[in-house]
Fold these 4 entries.
Entry 1:
Amino acid sequence: MSFADLSQARLFYVIDGPADAPVLVLSNSLGTCSDMWARQIPELTKHFRVLRYDTRGHGKSSVPEGEYSFEQLGNDVAELLVHLDIKRAHFCGLSMGGPTGLWLALARPELVGKLVLCNTAARIGSAEGWSARIAAVAEQTLEKMAPTLVERWLTDGYRAAEPGLTQVLIDMLRRTPDAGYSGNCAALRDADFREQVSSIQAPTLVIGGTHDLAATPAQGRELAAAIPGARYVELNTSHISNWEQPEAFTRAVVDFLTE
């Protein structure tokens, strides 16, 4: 296993694909880990050197004490790229990974080639909602909350048709440390990029899910409209679109990044 000891966190990462191919960084959603991208790897590695990592507080990465910010999450990625001697990379983030990409594209634009923002928004949820989520985790634990939370990640039809793959996500969420999950909830609580996204220069694709309640299609369209030249694609999914429609998702990403 590969780890990078950075200034504020220890990140687990995995690299697949040809050493001489363009680098694509994949950033996981809240409550998952780098494994959430497994269904994309066979196709993506035909075109890219794919760098997946576990966001701090998730998976095998460390769980720094306290609340986090997207400045910290973005700097973790910037330091990981330096650690791996990667000068520039495409970036694809889903849900929480989206604001990480927004921060990078705004604060460290020299690091970002093209940007793919999936099932996300410039402002996800409300401060009150995230504070309530933090309190709920403290009271109930993710172990107990996971099945209910995953109901919002996938459509009813998918969960009925694919109970085994649904269970994989439930188990992934259960393995997420409560403290790491809540630390990242605080980053989402405090983040609002709506006044800044018009400054993004990276070519950008926004992917939305028709049935997504966490980051709605309307929010996705608003995000694409606010970023100069960005385009919008909508898939017939709920929140974890890459898991629910892996082929369509991967095709949209590859077509955008290779055109």
Entry 2:
Amino acid sequence: MMNVSTHKHPLEQLPFPLTVYLVDDDPTIRDALSLSLSLGGYQIAQFANAEDFLTAYEPAWSGCVVADIRMPGMSGLQLQSALAERNSELPVVIITGHGDVTSARAAFLGKAIDFLEKPFDNEQLTRAIDKAFEIERGRMGRQARIARHSAVLSSLTPREREVVAHVIKGLHAKEVGALMGISHRTVEVHKARIMEKLGVRSVVDLMRLIEGAVESGAA
């Protein structure tokens, strides 16, 4: 069963709130960590086991998972693997009262943000969470850029896309016109409309936008 604390981090202004998904079978630890983190301004969602978390999991979730390594049923490391199999990029912080080198190595090989042995202090945990949130902000920023570039490029007609493909190669209007079988003045009209649609003022700005779209996977 999931319990959610709706306290929001004061710096959080993303469309999907960053949340700490706390997965631990010990209700005392869950409540203590949830209270501590909530008082620090973090939004918390509690789960009593990994299975409950995976049942509720949505790909759009953002934030990080803080999971105990030893729980009845699926362990924290198994949860970490299950998320990877779902292509989830949610960062994971592993906590444990039974730390060992093998488990720590497995956690970090699975790209865990940190491996914290109980008892740990609040600063250690918040430092790991803040690192995870920083990674998430970067990921969400990249996704937003891809969406923005996709929306912008989708506004172009097939003819305009053809003009753009030639222009970003550095071809002049007469050269583009000759390749497309149209006049250079028609090419200039297309260019003007393209730059108006894309909100750019020069061919250099147009090239930067297209390069950004290519790099982000939007083009």
Entry 3:
Amino acid sequence: MKTGSIAFVASDNATAQEAFCILTQRYRSLPPDKADYIVALGGDGFMLETLHRYLYRNVPIYGMNRGTVGFLMNLFRENELMERLENAQPVTLHPLRMVARRINGEVVESLAFNEVSLLRETRQAAKLRVLLDRKVRLEELVCDGVLVCTPAGSTAYNLSAHGTILPLGANLLGLTPISAFRPRRWLGALLPHTAAIDFEICDAAKRPVSVVADYNEVRNVAEVHVREDRDIAMTLLFDPEHNLEERILMEQFLP
């Protein structure tokens, strides 16, 4: 991959801001709307924000960890950045498109590169009807919530909810309950990436539910539709020794 101009963007935390100052002094930096590469300095949350912010720029994004977990980031090093960009391996991500209808009739759309999660808003469990390609698969799911994840997001909230890790390129989506009460033994499902998933909230006024697409929250929803949007593709860059596909695979063998 040929190197070109770079734009640096950074999280608000002190560590990321310090790295931003160092790198912008060392390398020529352009505004994000004019650069060939965007280098994001922060953690996984900031990477998700960067993906959303520059969704339609269609330039590769290379992250360096100046946050907490950094699963979607490369290691931070000041040296040889141009060479690292030149040798980086691309990974293509397709987001989930979420369309939610609130109780008052308002319709809200959002994208998610990690997951779309439905969560109860009060002390009472949520009651949901789950449909796949317009066919009812679960007449009633009583739970704290449920989520749909991409392969890239399968190691995040999905893994914490005991969902299955999905290899990149598997063309699958994960459907995972969060503290399911009924059916008690339902552990979720693996779905083809073409699946259209609908959630209907039962007793929405009495048992209110919110939906979160990455970090965008919509409260008091009545219906939620989720499907992968293959018309949108974002490219992340990873150092060969920090390959995202290998990291996702290795997560399945951690003790």
Entry 4:
Amino acid sequence: MSILSLVMEMRAYFEGWYFKQQNDTEALAFIPSFHIEKNRRYCAFIQVVTPDAAYSVKYPATALAAQSHRPILRIGNNIFSPRGVELDIEQPQLSVHGRLSYDRHRRPSYDIMGPFRWVPAMECRHSVVSLAHRVNGQITINGRSYLFQDGHGYIEGDRGCSFPQAYAWTQCSWGDNSLMLSEATIPFLGMHFRGIIAAVLLNGREYRLATYRGARLLRAKDGEIVIRQGAYTLTAKLLKKQELSLPAPVSGAMIRAIKESLCCQAAYCLEKNGVTLLDIVSPLASFEYEHH
């Protein structure tokens, strides 16, 4: 079945991926997605996020082609896959051209959703394609070139009908290490619960903290997230934000505005029984904090 046939058979739905790459001083993110709204209108988007600007380009669904093992997709002349991206966008306000190659992937040890991947009718399902990989190549955006030589990459995805109403998310890469953490209010069977997923890739080892492993949210306030799972405590704190407005899905349609800091200052700490395993402050962290 083609991707267009599949999308047309669905009701409100979205599917999108987040491709982040960073060098020693800055980062870029590309967010390809496709959508079907309640009225059965469907389309595709590419968002381009730099440290100080965000752009969104809408495409007709006829410009979309995807393979069954996503994220491997083409939107117009643009290609996105775990092996790299090729970008060719020429719009009145946005010119993006270039190619990046990805290798040396470090994938999660198992699905980030754990057993929740099998639960039907969830509002939003998260996936992590690559916790860390090498990035090489060059992208030119509105005349400015971004060069990546043995840079750091990260790929994740979301699919469902809507982003959670209240959530926080952060991601950070340094050396061969990586961290992602997300907590959200999850509607389920007429009720709500706080869901947590986190993966810390540290010195070649993956630490997994999640609701399905007994993780509890201790704090989500003022840009700080603290979770505890058995002997482990993980803290993420947004220290200095640089927010950009990005569109996000509600019932499949890109009508919500969220705030993301692609390159911000954030602190992370992982402890086991009071012993510090990780304690860093990064100027290249990414952070979304949608709690009001």
